[in-house]
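We were asked to recover a plausible sequence for a given structure. The inputs and outputs are reproduced exactly as logged, with field labels preserved.

PROBLEM: sequence recovery
POSITIONS: 514
GIVEN STRUCTURE:
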């Protein structure tokens, strides 16, 4: 037995440095952690239980049969994050450059299946060169198995991807199918075709970072949910994100009791809005004032910033916040912001996280590029997402709520459970100036002093129609509240709605306008 145990120890030691000590040192020289170091940082100390450490590929051809390191380039297993179970896999760039082959893929399939069977989140750490060329179509087949499992797990358990190095070719579609994607600045890259191929085919000369770096995907493509300055920060943020999420779609997110009272008043909100209704302000000041301890974890912060999406807690319970940002393009909805918000709403709904919207929206972004680019379709996607959501939904109108955009932003007519408005709210078909120009254009044109008449008519319209009380009279708003009471009203309302149960008609699935 002593000899058998010694042999086991030797094999386990070889698996722990599958790519060799020199390769690990090269990773360190690039400022990168090894696959196991990444897992150790992500998980609670000593909680990692590795699976399939002694697997090796059995492929032949192109000399690969002579190189058969343990793990086959991916470390898989399970452990805990803040005491809660998770499954994890980390590609090992020191083994075949992290490229995926048949055995490598089979290990990922197994941990994906285990995460769904156990009802726990799956965190994937990506650092690989795509499909392993030496194994031919077997690697592509393995990728297909990963994608199919990503789709099957969607909305069942949280799936989080972290891009720590290259993620190329077909490999990018697995992260793209997960719920959240973290990227490390200057290290993580995602691309279908690299700069060399693009230059050869199109003549465009672009650097790897400009084409596929974290900031590119965070600001332009929207593929990156979060950007971190280094690996450890990214992994810390994954731990933080999971604290807002349940382990699966049948559970509730964990409650974190803090010192912030649900009865706390927010008197500063009485003065947060500028005097002019057309002047910008920062909606995040309102969000930070209302949520527990001012802690707001924003998702896609750099993409379509005219709408804000993120997680927070109110009275210790997780909530998803969607809010217009008047500081950016007056908070108008456009293609990118509608798509961003729709994705977030559906994610919250899938994982039983109540939705709170803060509304200050003057309408949809006008323009030929918006119309031709599919503003109707993307706006309909956000509308569909809210209409379909069965979680508790509360809307707070702070200022402008005009036209169709008001309806799209979680109005009672599309299923918001409760809708509140500040006294400053302007709930109308359009702005006073726009309405006056349409309704009274002939009177204004014929007036001896058009400017004076226009100003008088606008003032009358604002006093008569652009206020929350007309909507409140018709029950379209449940109450007009003192801004200082916003936190208390939300906490009380969310507590009431916690027992909400809503069943949808039987169907295979809806057909969201994508």
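RECOVERED SEQUENCE:
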């Amino acid at each position: 037995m002593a000899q058998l145990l010694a042999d086991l120890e030797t094999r386990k030691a070889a698996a722990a440095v599958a790519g060799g000590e020199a390769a690990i040192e090269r990773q360190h020289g690039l400022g990168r952690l090894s696959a196991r170091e990444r897992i150790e940082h992500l998980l609670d100390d000593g909680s990692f239980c590795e699976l399939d450490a002694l697997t090796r590929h059995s492929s032949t051809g192109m000399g690969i049969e002579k190189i058969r390191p343990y793990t086959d380039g991916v470390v898989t297993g399970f452990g805990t994050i803040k005491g809660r179970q998770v499954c994890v896999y980390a590609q090992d760039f020191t083994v075949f450059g992290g490229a995926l082959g048949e055995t490598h893929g089979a290990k990922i399939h197994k941990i994906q299946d285990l995460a769904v069977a156990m009802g726990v989140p799956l965190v994937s750490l990506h650092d690989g060169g795509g499909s392993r060329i030496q194994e031919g179509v077997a690697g592509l087949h393995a990728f297909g198995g990963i994608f199919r499992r990503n789709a099957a797990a969607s909305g069942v358990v949280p799936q989080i991807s972290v891009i720590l190095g290259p993620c190329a070719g077909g490999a990018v579609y697995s992260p793209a199918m997960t719920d959240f994607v973290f990227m490390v600045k200057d290290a993580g890259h995602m691309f279908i075709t690299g700069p060399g191929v693009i230059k050869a085919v199109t003549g465009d000369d672009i650097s790897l970072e400009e084409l596929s770096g974290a900031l590119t995907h965070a600001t332009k493509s929207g593929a990156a949910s979060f950007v971190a300055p280094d690996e450890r920060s990214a992994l810390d943020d994954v731990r933080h994100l999971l604290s807002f999420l349940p382990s699966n779609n049948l559970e509730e997110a964990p409650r974190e009791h803090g010192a912030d009272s649900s009865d706390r008043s927010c008197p500063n909100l009485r003065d947060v809005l500028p005097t002019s209704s057309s002047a910008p302000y920062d909606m995040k000041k309102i969000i930070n004032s209302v949520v527990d301890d001012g802690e707001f974890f924003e998702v896609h912060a750099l993409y379509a910033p005219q709408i804000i999406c993120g997680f927070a807690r109110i009275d210790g319970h997780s909530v998803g916040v969607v809010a217009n940002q008047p500081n950016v393009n007056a908070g108008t909805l456009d293609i990118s912001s509608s798509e961003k918000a729709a994705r977030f709403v559906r994610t919250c709904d899938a994982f039983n996280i109540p939705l709170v919207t803060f509304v200050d929206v003057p309408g949809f972004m006008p323009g030929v590029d918006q119309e031709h680019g599919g503003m109707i379709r993307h706006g309909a996607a956000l509308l569909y997402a809210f209409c379909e959501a069965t979680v508790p939904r509360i809307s707070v109108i702070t200022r402008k709520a005009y036209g169709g955009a008001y309806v799209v932003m979680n109005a009672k007519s599309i299923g918001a459970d409760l809708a509140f408005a500040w006294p400053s709210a302007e709930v109308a078909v359009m702005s006073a100036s726009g309405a006056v120009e349409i309704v009274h254009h002939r009177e204004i044109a014929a007036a001896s002093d058009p400017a004076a008449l226009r100003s008088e008519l606008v003032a009358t319209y604002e006093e008569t129609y652009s206020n929350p009380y007309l909507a409140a009279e018709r029950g379209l708003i449940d109450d007009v509240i003192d801004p200082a009471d916003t936190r208390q009203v939300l906490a009380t309302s969310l507590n009431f709605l916690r027992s909400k149960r809503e069943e949808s008609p039987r169907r295979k699935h809806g057909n969201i306008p994508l």
